[in-house]
Amino acid sequence: QVQLVESGGGSVQAGGSLRLSCAASRFTPIYCMAWFRQAPGKEREGVAAVGSSGSTTYTDSVKGRFTISQDNAKNILYLQMDSLTPEETAMYYCADRRCGSGYPAGPILEPYKYNVWGQGTQVTVSS
After folding, report:
1. I want to staple 11 with a disulfide (CB 3.0 to 4.6 A). Which of 46, 49, 119, 124 is the partner?
2. What's the pLDDT tens digit per position in 69-101?
């Protein structure tokens, strides 16, 4: 089973930027990855996802500000986050699922579709 380790979280002022990284023990086209976040007392929310062909999707609130990407040579998934707001303070997680060959190949933001999760990295945005 793949292991996922997030890093790059921290404290930043509103309007600032952070780049999160998720190191995976393997990258293959039959697995797709995504970023999620969960604030205290709230449900886990899909932020950005990558499909098997490299297509991406974002939740509406981050479109134009966040960018998901992956370095296949290094087995790292990134999330570049710009113009952060205090409301985006949360624990951020990366996750992994099978895709293609009978599984949905496109990017998916529903948490229940993913079965391997990292431990999370905290992002705190102050006003």
Report:
1. 124
2. 999 888 999 999 999 999 999 999 999 999 988
